[in-house]
Amino acid sequence: MNPTRLQFTVQHQDRQARAGQVELPRGSFETPIFMPVGTLATVKAMTPAELDQLGARIVLSNAYHLFLRPGQDVVQRCGGLHRFMGWPNLILTDSGGYQVFSLRSLMRIDDDGVEFRSHLDGSLHTLSPERVMAVQAALGSDIAMAFDHCPPSRADPRQVRDAMDRTTRWAQRCVEQPRPPHQVRFGIIQGGLDVELRMQHLETLTRLPFEGFALGGLSVGETPQQMHQVLEQVARHMPADRPRYLMGVGRAEDLLQAIGAGIDMFDCVMPTRNARNGQLFTETGRIVISNASMREDCRPPDPDCECATCQTYSRAYLSHLYRSREILYSRLATLHNLHFTIQLVRRAREAIIHGNYDEFCRAFLVRRNETG
Amino acid sequence: MNPTRLQFTVQHQDRQARAGQVELPRGSFETPIFMPVGTLATVKAMTPAELDQLGARIVLSNAYHLFLRPGQDVVQRCGGLHRFMGWPNLILTDSGGYQVFSLRSLMRIDDDGVEFRSHLDGSLHTLSPERVMAVQAALGSDIAMAFDHCPPSRADPRQVRDAMDRTTRWAQRCVEQPRPPHQVRFGIIQGGLDVELRMQHLETLTRLPFEGFALGGLSVGETPQQMHQVLEQVARHMPADRPRYLMGVGRAEDLLQAIGAGIDMFDCVMPTRNARNGQLFTETGRIVISNASMREDCRPPDPDCECATCQTYSRAYLSHLYRSREILYSRLATLHNLHFTIQLVRRAREAIIHGNYDEFCRAFLVRRNETG
């Protein structure tokens, strides 16, 4: 590990919950943080300027998807991913391990890597740890994720262990690859819901020179309780001096739980995807914009919300746009849900700094249960 | 006519071309002007703030569409159309005559009005001149269009004359309807491609107390030359002291031709619709973003354009977004095409003010033909 590439400072700690700061060669961000997902080099329906204004400091993009289209060479020729998508802040690229194993187009897998068919046109491709790190190097992301083998959510113990061991062997090859001077690498801890396996993998992976560590293979179909149990027992043992990233989690209750367990970073498609599907998040639950009651409701979506959508438009207007399949609906709903999620995590940070994180979580859950 | 509701000043005239100013109770705009189309109370893919920044001062919405969904009562209860869609500037509502007659769901038509089936759910509705003006009064638009009978583009002379005569009888009823204190009404001149009929209808309609007049039933399938002939011979005879509006025209060459013939106002779905369909307008012709050559082209869409899209993004990025069906593509392309069209009309205005409109048009056409 090159210690100058990533500086992580824990500024406040409240039990296991941490408020920190991550400094990278091309920018910094405060933690805990939520990273909006821009799989295809765009956070769906949003511009970079809007994301920046929402307070987003780092977005997630996906090496697997960009490898298939438009191809990392095009992105590199156009000046790298930041310039390609016009994003002035930081980018984390997921390696695509999760995608390769979940898109059901897998043809062959061994230690060399994976052979799969493109979900776009059926063409045959191979990805290996070396190739995936080269893709991320070409994209020029700030944080590159190691290539992991993410087992199916209902995998048996042997499959989980095999995937974990392969992830370890691949991780060793990932950290040996060349990378741009501004790029750091995070390892991905697997092990399913088995805390003992998780701890084993954590111990193994943390011997490798990664600048940060992620928990992969969670929020893939297990119950929230199952995930929380793993988090409670594992997160606190992840290296305290490096950022801890829980992949694919964005539900409000899960975010608060995970932050309480010591997680620093999150990404999730839920705020953006659910927005497009007609769900608006509020403190007291979800508004379903397709409900008949919304059609003549002139109130703001969330009267307590300060986002541009709630400050300007009515439920009736959003309902009209949604029913009419207007693009503006997706824009306004996405803006609102990202505002909600980013602000929730920011307020969690403030509560940690003020030493009242448990109280903050309790108050949030009470409000939600009273009205939901 | 209430002369205080609309003040029109011709500031400069260059042959038939006019640079003017329209003052209405709730705002003003300079002419010639292009009005972006927001049929369903949204200019597709754009926010009001973006439209305002592009220089849009008035948008067009559609009474027929809003009558069917969400219903003018909902809009009125939420504070009127301006507030409903969050648009601080002016709104012109088309009456829906064109839509009723073009959507092929027409059941019955006589002097009372029309009976038709909704294109949304097949439900039966009737619209009359009285009803249409009441819808526009409830919406609270700044300019309400009279309810006209727009004949099919291939109508025979008798059909054209019948539609024209009915439009006259309807226009007489439209001007007798109540309206909000800030609303003005424009009459629609029909008559197809027959200049004599057009002149007859112009003479008849201009006896009614409309604050402005429009040419309807053009750009509906005839050749540009046919339309230009009608414009050249008819536009100059429309009342010089009121705005002249050519409905449904937005192609660059047609705009310049019509401005030269003395038209002041335009609307068209083309800039927005073609954007979504992959066409970007430039001075030298259209960029087709689906072309294979765009995939690796790191240049801006239009290197000479000052819009936010061309200042920030590459053809390769737009090509990637288009192929990936990302919403951001529609946003960026729409922004560009509206910028192009609004700026073209604004530059036409400047040329009129400087007395070199013919030269401006010639230079535009030469550039286009050299490279197109």
Topology:
The structure is a homodimer of 372-residue chains.
Chain A: E1 7-14, E2 17-24, E3 27-31, E4 33-36, H1 48-54, E5 58-62, H2 63-68, H3 72-77, H4 81-85, E6 90-94, H5 97-102, E7 106-110, E8 113-117, E9 124-127, H6 129-139, E10 143-145, H7 157-174, E11 184-189, H8 195-205, E12 212-215, H9 224-234, E13 244-246, H10 252-261, E14 265-268, H11 270-276, E15 279-282, E16 285-288, H12 308-312, H13 315-323, H14 327-353, H15 357-371
Parallel strand pairs in A: 4-14, 5-6, 6-10, 10-11, 11-12, 12-13, 13-14
Antiparallel strand pairs in A: 1-2, 2-3, 7-8, 8-9, 15-16
Helix pairs in contact in A: 6-7, 7-8, 8-9, 9-10, 10-14, 10-15, 11-14, 13-14, 14-15
Structural notes for this entry:
The structure is a homodimer of 372-residue chains. With 372 residues, the first copy, chain A, is an alpha/beta fold. Chain A has two domains: 7-268, Queuine tRNA-ribosyltransferase-like (TIM Barrel, Alpha-Beta Barrel), CATH 3.20.20; 275-371, no CATH class. Chain A is 41% helix and 21% strand. Chain A contains 15 helices and 16 strands. Chain A has helices at residues 48-54, 63-68, 72-77, 81-85, 97-102, 129-139, 157-174, 195-205, 224-234, 252-261, 270-276, 308-312, 315-323, 327-353, 357-371; strands at 7-14, 17-24, 27-31, 33-36, 58-62, 90-94, 106-110, 113-117, 124-127, 143-145, 184-189, 212-215, 244-246, 265-268, 279-282, 285-288. An eight-stranded parallel β-sheet of chain A has the order 4-14-13-12-11-10-6-5. In chain A, β13, α10 (252-261) and β14 (265-268) form a beta-alpha-beta unit. In chain A, α7 (157-174) runs parallel beside α8, α9 (224-234) packs parallel to α10 and α14 (327-353) crosses α15 (357-371). The mean pLDDT of chain A is 95. At the A-B interface, α13 and α14 of A face α13 and α14 of B.
